Amino acid sequence: MSAPPTQHAGQKPPVVPASTEPLDCVDLGRSQEEPRRPLVPAPQVRDGAEALESSPSSKRRWMAAGFAGLAVAGAATGLVGHTLLTAPVAPGATTPIVFQEGRLYVSPEAGHDASTAWRVFRRQFYEDDAKADLASDSNRFLPAPQGSQPPGELTQDSLRVVSWNLHRGQGREDEGSREQVPQMVAQIREAGPDVALLQEVPPWRAAEIVKGTGMDGYYTNTAPGQGNLILVHPDLEVVGNFRETLSFEVENAQDADRVIETWKDVGAAGHPRSAQALRLQRPDGSTSLVWNTHLTNIDYQDGQRAMEAQRLVDFLDEVALPGEPVFGGGDLNSKAGLDAVHVLEEHGYHLDGARIDWLATRGTTLEQVEHEKLLEGDLQLSDHPMVRGQVPDQGGKVE
Q1: Are residues 305 and 216 in the same domain?
Q2: Rg of the chain, C-alpha, whole Å
Q3: What is the pLDDT of residues 171-189, one digit of tens each?
Q4: Which pTM was predicted?
Q5: Domain carrying residue 99
Q6: Does an H or E element contain 116, and which?
Q7: Burial class (CB in 10 A: 0-12, 13-18, 19+), 234
């Protein structure tokens, strides 16, 4: 992989410098040949905070979860905390911890509650990173460690693409929310993608996923404790790196502070939504634009998801080169024919996938699409299926 392109003097820099801790990564600028044009403001959706001002406050719930997280953190080195966070689940158990067949198990509810409390506790240390990413227009670069091996050779004449919502690196909530990142990494490697589009990736897990897959990573926090990650085969060169917040107006550090404070006050309804895009160049010089997103699961104002989808389309139109093939996907939280899917189809995208998880193309085709709920023993990995497909090599040329 070549060195990241440098940022040119005329380009708007991230207002808040992206932190290098704890992800141990750097911001990747854009090439001098690709300045960002001014964005066309999208109505309403660019400032979701106003729509949320009347939402009921959930500060007490957040505080309770935080204190619960402290309790779990304090107990994590002891038997109880370790068991709640790591023990296998006993389906149907009604007591938090049970002893069966010579070992300790936890009930699904106790396992989920402990994992949630521990996650809420950890994410408070990532607020600065989330604010920095909200104010940035590029993704964090996480290079694959030297000597690591990608899942396979770069595919010839096509690109293998995977989209998967990792559900915070955990299993289903009704199955105890067990930590599953190592198993997920193994499944990604088995799929052998050239590009992987991942959603709901905790920042403390991003570097682990990059290392385990042997692929270069491009990460953006969407809120403290969660973000989106694009994995790229190291034989593909990234010559353009772009990100955009879809649900709030964020132009500076003060805007980012306001968005995070809103999220902390109202909870899931205030979760910022963003889009990632990368320009990929194959060894023969052909390019294509790949994107990744996770749209809102709560329409806190009428048509919110459709407006985010429209903002996504506008963003991709802005950064794509004339005639350049565009492909991508993610968790659109939209079923076939509805809101976000309808918006993308109206703008020339072809979509295929599973219920709310999609792959999409424009200016190229999508082939061999399949989806599968992956299992580790009796437990499902994530609460979303993995979607796989192939995009034929029809890239444009960089002049």
Answers
A1: yes
A2: 21
A3: 999 899 999 999 999 999 9
A4: 0.83
A5: 59-124
A6: helix 108-123
A7: middle
